[in-house]
């Protein structure tokens, strides 16, 4: 842990002083010819004092330097914004604020899992500047930078933004929804306190990009469903199943596509009724027997099938332990029978609750 803290302090020092570690190494070893012809280097920053501090591994940062860094960032953003009003949607991650930098080094073992995830979420908000955006700016940011091109081609920007405003009363509600399916993988959690990748682990845009994208995709699918467009990344039958269930039960119950109660995470249910703790799982053929997707061979197909079985069994055990009823749907299902079976499960659940 001491080593990772040293890596953090050095990264923080380099960031606040806006220095390049490679340039410092070259200057320290008097290899000036390697950088003299490089453009966009502010040699005024590389003073004798700075080079000496780098040599001595003196990476302390004063409050004055933190304030100066923040001031310079605001000046740069204002300059960019004056040239292009839409640039405010694109600088997220380019200019790191002290509020993010001072919070991005987290000692994982000091937190319970739920508290750790909430802290990571807060840092993602800082990293992407979402807390600084207005509701309108955040909406534009999500549409322009995070939704797929297929969605923005099918649904115009104004219609999407009108939907955001009609669905959420505040920007905070909007952000909570965008992050509601953010579940960082155990591998990424471990890398937060690993020295393997060096200072790159303090870049949340890199470290948690995939998990954030997945969470936003769930929201994007909800948008597509609202506008009667096909859901991304689902089999057609699963898509149709979700639509029909919402059509039948959506007025009475909240229904979530790819829902994940806290006790199930990081796994997800295809369809979930959070208020009454009922799930619907579409069991494609790959859940019943080995399927060779993409011609990878029988051995790979068998391995994937066995992994699917393990995940399915784990999900089933978690559901039983948490009193969650699961309705399993198989290919070539009859929608009328699905509605009848689901109605029966709901009625029995309501009786138990009462």
Describe what this molecule looks like in 3D.
This protein is mainly α. It has two domains: 96-232, no CATH class; 234-354, 3-Layer(aba) Sandwich (Endonuclease, Chain A). It is built from 16 helices and four strands. A four-stranded mixed sheet has the order 1-2-3-4, sandwiched between helices. Helix 7 packs across helix 9. The longest helix has 24 residues, at 298-321. The mean pLDDT is 86.
Helix content: 40-55%
* Spatial strand sequence of the major β-sheet: 1-2-3-4
Shape: elongated
Number of continuous helical runs: 16
Any idea how many domains?
2
Main sheet characteristics:
4 strands, mixed
- Rounded to an integer in angstroms, the radius of gyration calculated over CA atoms is 25 Å
Structural class: mainly alpha
Number of strands: 4
Approximately how much beta-strand content do the residues carry?
5-15%
**End-to-end distance:** 51 Å
pLDDT averaged residue by residue? 86
- What order do the SSEs take from the amino end to the carboxyl end, as H and E? HHHHHHHHHHHHHHEEEHEH
Low-confidence stretches: none
Question: Secondary-structure blueprint of this entry?
Answer:
Layout: H1 2-16, H2 21-28, H3 48-56, H4 63-83, H5 98-101, H6 113-127, H7 135-146, H8 149-154, H9 157-167, H10 171-178, H11 186-191, H12 204-207, H13 209-226, H14 236-249, E1 256-259, E2 269-273, E3 278-282, H15 298-321, E4 325-329, H16 335-353
Parallel strand pairs: 3-4
Antiparallel strand pairs: 1-2, 2-3
Helix pairs in contact: 7-9
